[in-house]
Write a structure and sequence with these properties.
Length: about 270
């Protein structure tokens, strides 16, 4: 059983942080239950994790619940109080940064070809980060790229279809225009890399009576894209009026990304 993992310093995201040795996080070499008592301590340059075999009172997850007294928190902030983090809390933050960097690198920047992914977002800042990684020129190279967005995008060599160009059309015409635009972008791809298509927010189609046209577009694409393309469909889930329509839309995708919490899911059997 692995009870010790050396801590190595790597460049992860905008800051240096601790990257735990791979064997520490593989269940096959360090098996434990999610609710099992563990002892975590730092000795020298190593992180030690032991099974204690004891049960006892557990503190609530530090990040799971909002403050019960927002006024108190605001007063502490106004009086220039700052939190004193425990070692466990700092480790939690480090792991959170590692998780975010790994997800952005392996699941967004290097999303495999033929994926039909759905991005379920609430924070615009999260959407911006995901799109920036998805269209990173270091990964896309000379492949064709297309984005359907509310405002003009500042991304190099990008075919940009604006929302205003389709929002006033009837559902069938709007659906056909979006579908034709996707394949027009793909037709310009002269590289072997997959065409990358993204839509900032399809949720407006669920709200203005165009749900049927949207479902046709998503269903025609299928769980996986048949052509050499990768398609990322964004939905602002904070504005969804009819959850049942969103359920149908989600059923046409084999890959899902959420921002709260930031996780990536793959459909079983896909």
């Amino acid at each position: 059983m692995v009870t010790q993992a050396e801590a190595k310093i790597h460049r992860v995201g905008p800051r240096h942080t601790i990257y735990l040795a791979k064997d520490l996080v593989e269940d096959s070499t360090f098996p434990f239950q999610a609710n099992e008592d563990l002892t975590v301590r730092i000795e020298g340059g190593a992180l030690i994790i032991d099974k204690t075999g004891k049960s006892g009172y557990r503190l609530p997850d530090m990040e799971a619940l909002p403050s019960r007294n927002q006024h108190v928190m605001e007063t502490l902030d106004n009086l220039k109080f700052s939190p004193i983090a425990s070692k466990a809390e700092r480790i939690r933050q480090m792991l959170s940064e590692i998780h975010e960097a790994e997800m952005l690198e392996s699941r967004i920047r290097h999303m495999p070809k033929s994926e039909h992914a759905i991005l379920l977002w609430e924070e615009k800042s999260f959407l911006d980060i995901v799109l920036s990684e998805f269209f990173d020129p270091g990964v896309t190279g000379k492949a064709a790229k297309g984005l359907l967005s509310a405002k003009p995008a500042n991304i190099e060599s990008l075919s940009n279809l604006l929302l205003e160009e389709v929002s006033g059309l009837d559902r069938q015409t709007a659906a056909r225009k979006i579908r034709d635009w996707m394949f027009q972008v793909h037709s310009t791809n002269k590289s072997n890399l997959p065409t990358r298509i993204a839509v900032e927010d399809y949720s407006w189609l669920l709200q203005n009576g165009s749900a049927k046209g949207l479902l046709e577009v998503e269903q025609n694409i299928g769980l996986r894209v048949r052509e050499n393309m990768t398609i990322l469909c964004g939905y602002d889930v904070s504005n969804v009026v009819d959850p049942k329509q969103l359920d149908k839309v989600m059923g046409f995708h084999g890959y899902a990304i959420m921002d709260h919490p930031f996780r990536v899911y793959r459909r079983a059997g896909d």
